[in-house]
Amino acid sequence: MDDLTTNRPTVLLRGEFSSRLRLYMLVYWGLPFVASIIGLPLLPFWLVFGPLWIRRYHASLRCELTERTVVIARGVLFRREMTIPLDKIQDISIREGPLLSALGILQLRIETAGQSQSSTGKSDADLTGLVNARAIRDRILEQRDALGSPEAPLRMADPQHALLAEIRDLLVRLEARIETGG
Questions:
Q1: According to the 3-state scheme, what is the secondary structure of 84-149?
Q2: Would you say the pTM of this structure is higher than 0.85?
Q3: Which residue ranges make up each domain of the chain?
Q4: pLDDT by residue (tens digit) across 7-27?
Q5: pLDDT tier for residue 176 given thresholds of 50, 70 and 90
Q6: Disulfide-capable partner of 108 in 59, 129, 133, 141 (CB 3.0 to 4.6 Å)?
């Protein structure tokens, strides 16, 4: 077996995206064409080619939870894969708007330490149309909290990680002794 396949992290949860996301994207990205005089002549072009692009974009969406990260992938022409370490996640929020509610889908936003928000207020880790978004949010937070607990096992074969785990456990025991005064 090759080293690249043996070191792949175990996927604990794989998110699925709703098929209603396609309709949402068609309407959401088509609204600027309808709302502007310049865009109105381009609306037929969007209605013909938009669904083709949206189908490919929808097929490219991926969200996976591993033992230590959340992996998000998307893109048609310019593919982007983002790996978010669980220990950097500060909050995961659920958003609903009128159009999202009408279609019965949610937007899950992962906020991280040191994250830069764009001027549009969107995060790089906005996942619109994720099926069971609330359950996925809860599972990611559970895994993050389990990872941060001193009892969480380090599943690394690297001796340096084992040494770091040993040092961590020693510090936890010392801290407990100091707190109890003994």
A1: EEHHHEEEEEEECCHHHHHHCCCEEEEEECCCCCCCCCCCCCEEECECCHHHHHHHHHHHHHHHHC
A2: no
A3: 3-149, 151-182
A4: 778 999 999 999 999 999 999
A5: confident
A6: 133
